[in-house]
């Protein structure tokens, strides 16, 4: 159940969306489209959108550019988080992270379990922070992206939740 800690002021974020897929283009990208629709409907801005094959180095190239871009505050990645040999988004992302936020993956799998049962155990969804940028890697299914947005991200990316959201932490993410 969401915990409300209202601050009253909404701060839109600049969010980039990366789809990782070997089998579809942007026109067939339902997951990325859903994330773009949800973030825009919530009042955020789309900072950038890209689609790359499930190749570690191509993912890292795009992600590194967005991490270095101070205008990009969050990145939502869809695809490449499964257990198959081609699913390598976690391996591409982890070396770029300053800190992994283990609770995100745990919570996502808990929510997924309620919807798809034990198959949720095969998800390698994760989140972390790099250079003050939030990065979230989700499965490539539209349903999984909907679950993540509706169950976690909508609340955590809403500044009106006061100290109870990720936006409240953003000013302190670059502290050393």
From TrEMBL:
Biochemical pathway: Cofactor biosynthesis; molybdopterin biosynthesis
PROSITE patterns: MOCF_BIOSYNTHESIS_1
BP GO terms, sorted: Mo-molybdopterin cofactor biosynthetic process
CDD domains to which the protein is assigned, alphabetical: MogA_MoaB
Domain MoaB/Mog: 16-160
Any single GO CC term annotated in Swiss-Prot or TrEMBL for this entry: cytosol
Origin: domain of life: Bacteria
Pfam families noted in UniProt: MoCF_biosynth (PF00994)
Record carries keyword Protease: no
Keyword entries, A-Z: Molybdenum cofactor biosynthesis
InterPro entries per UniProt: MoaB, MoaB/Mog-like_dom_sf, MoaB/Mog_dom, MoaB_proteobac, MoCF_biosynth_CS
Family: Belongs to the MoaB/Mog family.
Record's function text: May be involved in the biosynthesis of molybdopterin.
Identification of the protein by name: Molybdenum cofactor biosynthesis protein B
Organism from which the protein derives: Plasticicumulans acidivorans
Lineage of source species: Bacteria, Pseudomonadati, Pseudomonadota, Gammaproteobacteria, Candidatus Competibacteraceae
